[in-house]
From TrEMBL:
GO terms for cellular component: extracellular region. This is Uncharacterized protein. Its main location: secreted. Pfam families: GILT (PF03227).
Amino acid sequence: MSNYIHLFEANQTTYNFKTKRGQFESDGNRLHSCATKYIPDVLTTLNYISCLEKLEKHQQGYAPFEFGIPPKYPIDKCKNKLPAGLYPKIINCYRSDEGWELYEENKEKSKPLLPKAGTIPFPYVSFNDEHDDVLAQDAVDNFKSTLCKVTGVVDKACSL
């Protein structure tokens, strides 16, 4: 699974990334990058990121966001999906230069995978560092199911 990064402008000396949806999205991209690095297995990664994605959708629809008050990214809300001792590693990465460096690496990896403007809506999700518009749209529609299909994971969590 490749992390995806939306188009943005960056001031790399201060890690001031501007994404399409602001700081909330930037925080999410950074946390996902750290989680993908430190979670050792696909099923745990699937469950953790899916949990975060559900919370993101809920919080992005939160009324204050519409009035210019961005919500805080739910960094601690899905830690119960992780094995003991893993959450501190992910959070230390997220809160350090390592998280920003992973964010930057994923941005660079994402550049050749992004669709041409107007062809497919964001987010654009890629797997195995390959550009596949159909798979990308499937992942947007049902990330869990698509990730399971791509990785060969067979589990009841794939159909939830």
